[in-house]
Amino acid sequence: MQSKTNHKTGMGSHHSEKMKNDEWLTPPELHAKLGRFDLDPCAPITRPWPTADNHYTITDNGMSKEWFGRVWLNPPYGREAAQWLNRMADHGNGLALIFARTETDMFFKQVWERATAILFIRGRISFHYVDGRKAKANGGAPSCLIAYGNKEAVFLENCTLPGQFVSLREVRDAV
């Protein structure tokens, strides 16, 4: 996930001014359970582990590049997230990790109306800094994985992550 630094807000746009970092990594143990990805279009410039076979960073402007294959998306958490989710929905093949803010306009437009399935993750995720250190506190809100595409929905339904799976579309010919 990448974003311009805003020293007044953090991942959930509600943290205190003490939050000085706006670039967070998915915990490696969670990411390892999600399989291999072809592309991470908003990877941090510095990362202690790969999130996909190919990475676009903020300097590449992943929004303007071609997306291909199975995409991993941990978008900037804030107002930019909606455009990234819209692009993921258009691509139709991948997983996105976002806060489970089910009442928001973004969630209604980019998830409820366009995604194939959701896995609401049990508990709260403790993200990592770009140097690999685990943050002292969790992300401050519940998270969910959003599937775009039938194969991704089947993957989420059968993965070993604790949580609640919700199918949003009829899944056909997923294999």
Task: Write out key terms for the chains shown.
175 residues; alpha/beta; two-stranded parallel sheet
Distance between the termini: 29 Å
Low-confidence stretches: 1-21
Strand order of the largest sheet: 3-4-6-5-7
Shape: globular
Class derived from helix and strand content: alpha/beta
C-alpha Rg, in Å?
15 Å
Number of helices: 4
Count of distinct structural domains: 1
| Number of strand elements | 7
Order of helices and strands: HEEEHEHEEHE
**pLDDT averaged residue by residue:** 83
Describe the fold and architecture.
With 175 residues, this protein is of the alpha/beta class. It has one domain (28-121, 130-164). 19% of the residues lie in helices and 17% in strands. It contains 4 helices and 7 strands. It has helices at residues 28-32, 81-91, 105-112, 150-158, and strands at residues 39-40, 54-55, 71-73, 94-99, 117-121, 143-148, 163-167. The strands form 2 sheets. A 5-stranded mixed beta sheet has the order 3-4-6-5-7. Helix 2 links the parallel strand 3 (71-73) and strand 4. Helix 2 (81-91) packs parallel to helix 3 (105-112). The protein is globular, with a radius of gyration of 15 Å. It starts with 27 loop residues before the first helix and ends in an 8-residue tail after the last strand.
